[in-house]
Amino acid sequence: MRTDVHARLQDDIVSGVFSPGDPLVEVALADRYKVSRTPIREALRKLQADGLVEQFARGYRVSQNSPQDILDLYDVRIALEQVAAQSAAERRTPYDLARLGRAHQALVDAVAAGDSVSASSACAHAFHADLWEATHNKTLISSLESLERRITAFSSSTLDSPGRGESIVAEHAGIIEAVAAGDAELAGTLAREHMARSRDIRLALYAEYAEGMPTRR
């Protein structure tokens, strides 16, 4: 039950049910998830350790990420994505390549059909998850999954930027080709450039969001 509460609250934060800065009141959460306050308190502590929740004067709230937080997260994400792409190029199996191909095609179809940002984002996330799996490195996969949860909890998706869907499709295609060819250096370079573009777009979207966000006390 306690693990379930943690997962449900995490999903609600990542999916935007709770927005950055929203207070997370134990009594209200206990009522929402139909549990006592003890598992709620434990879930909040775990989410604080993950960076999704922060403490403030009156308890807990969804983390409010600053531009520096975004830069810090992406510095690590860019480095690890480069390592992941390089490792995938060296270790991928035919099954891994098939999974990557299916994930990529799902994104191609979603973008071409004009699907919602959330649907296209899910396809993009699936591609990266399959790329990580192709490394066959559990520690690397776990680290990237943790970073992904924190980045996904931001107030917007890079796919909110006009034309980003098409550019992601092209960038992913290049990464797949390099991984399939076993070109670790090229795969790593393309992955690094891909995530650097995402970082820059994320910062621009944050600036737009911050301008329209009411001041919180």
From TrEMBL:
CDD domains per UniProt: WHTH_GntR
Domain HTH gntR-type: 1-65
Record GO terms (molecular function): DNA binding; DNA-binding transcription factor activity
InterPro entries: GntR_C (IPR011711), TF_FadR/GntR_C (IPR008920), Tscrpt_reg_HTH_GntR (IPR000524), WH-like_DNA-bd_sf (IPR036388), WH_DNA-bd_sf (IPR036390)
Claim: DNA-binding is one of the keywords in the record: yes
Keywords linked to the UniProt accession: DNA-binding, Transcription, Transcription regulation
Full protein name: GntR family transcriptional regulator
Organism expressing this protein natively: Acrocarpospora pleiomorpha
